[in-house]
Amino acid sequence: MNFQNKNVVVTGANGGMGQVITKRFLEEGAKVAALDLYVDEIEKWENDYPDHLIAISANLTKEKEVKEAVGKATDSLGHISVLLNTLGIAQSATPIDEVEFSDWDRLMAVNTTSLFLISKEVVKGMKEQGAGVITNVASIAAERPRPGLNAYVTSKGGALAFTKALAIELAEYKIRVNAINPGPSDTSMLGKFSPEGGDVDQVKEDTFKKSVPLGELVTPEDIAEAAMYLSSDGARMVTGSVLNVDGGRGL
Ligand SMILES: NC(=O)c1ccc[n+]([C@@H]2O[C@H](COP(=O)([O-])OP(=O)(O)OC[C@H]3O[C@@H](n4cnc5c(N)ncnc54)[C@H](O)[C@@H]3O)[C@@H](O)[C@H]2O)c1
User: Fold this and answer.
1) Is the pTM of this model over 0.70?
2) Ligand 1 in contact with 175 (CB < 6 A)?
3) Residues facing residue 32 across a β-bridge
4) Any idea what DSSP says for residue 244?
5) Do 87 and 36 contact (CB within 8 A), yes or no?
6) Which of 96, 128, 131, 136 is the 20 to 30 A CA-CA neighbour of 103?
7) Ligand 1 within 6 A of CB of 247
8) Distances (CA, A) of 139 to 49, 50, 61, 235
């Protein structure tokens, strides 16, 4: 895979999967704008990748901040050819009659609405170029839900539906749009799915690991591998697809 001359925007770049994906793109020669609410980890590498990495702090649920962030990315790198959305938040398992509206709303904003806001900005340039690739990290939970993750599951279902809606709409511009469904992945997010006050390590071991037929948690590297493939020319005829990287959890 060769990402020389590719300009990439990674969202959620400071997170467990986002950091590994950002590094992979840089190692493959891409220029990367790394967007996140927090960019402290990314900023540590800026000197290692001169002219190839820009860290941009933004709340990607806010239309104005998204516009400014994409503007900065484009000014710094040039036109954006690849968008890789990993941003997201978890929901701690909560019975539906106890879910606060504000929590529901925030999950929708971060996990679904942000995809609309950033796609809207990035697609403008991709249409002009007649090329582009967008990949959204959703979740296998959207297809095989877990009790109490009502808002999270719905928000990720929205991400999958949005992916397919854009894939058909943007095919005529040669813009491909796909999704990755990770299974339980060994990042700090995983612990946040347990009920408030639950023992995180025990839930990881007893619930999540055991739910994966291949018997291991997914790693950020597994997700990065799928992200590289879908973003590459090797996947030139792949659009509207959902790639489950879940160790069989969805079966
Ligand atoms: N970890 C898992 O078990 C798992 C399983 C299935 C799907 N996923 C999905 O994979 C993706 C990556 O998850 P992760 O495990 O790396 O989580 P993570 O919490 O490590 O990373 C998520 C990143 O998103 C950023 N973010 C949150 N809200 C934001 C906002 N409003 N604006 C900008 N950035 C924001 C966070 O700051 C964080 O850096 C998420 O979409 C998650 O839902 C994770």
Assistant:
1) yes
2) no
3) 8, 53
4) E
5) yes
6) 136
7) no
8) 31, 34, 19, 21
| Nearest-CA residue for atom 34 of ligand 1 | 36
Q: Which of 88, 18, 90, 102 has the alpha carbon at shortest distance from 53?
A: 18
Domain boundaries, the chain: 7-245
pLDDT, one tens digit for every residue, the chain (251 residues)? 789 999 999 999 999 999 999 999 999 999 999 999 999 999 999 999 999 999 999 999 999 999 999 999 999 999 999 999 999 999 999 999 999 999 999 999 999 999 999 999 999 999 999 999 999 999 999 999 999 999 999 999 999 999 999 999 999 999 999 999 999 998 889 888 877 767 778 888 888 899 999 999 999 999 999 999 999 999 999 999 999 999 999 99
Q: What distance in angstroms lies between residue 172's CA and the mean position of ligand 1's atoms?
A: 31
Atom of ligand 1 nearest to the CA of 59: 32
Residue type, 232: S
Answer whether 18 contacts ligand 1 (Cβ < 6 A).
Answer: yes
CATH code, 7-245 = 3.40.50.720
Instruction: Look up 152 and say whether it is catalytic.
Output: yes
E strand intervals along the chain:
7-11, 31-36, 53-57, 82-85, 132-137, 175-182, 242-245
User: Which of 68, 108, 189 maximizes ligand 1 atoms within 8 Å of its Cβ, making it the mutation to test the pocket?
Assistant: 189
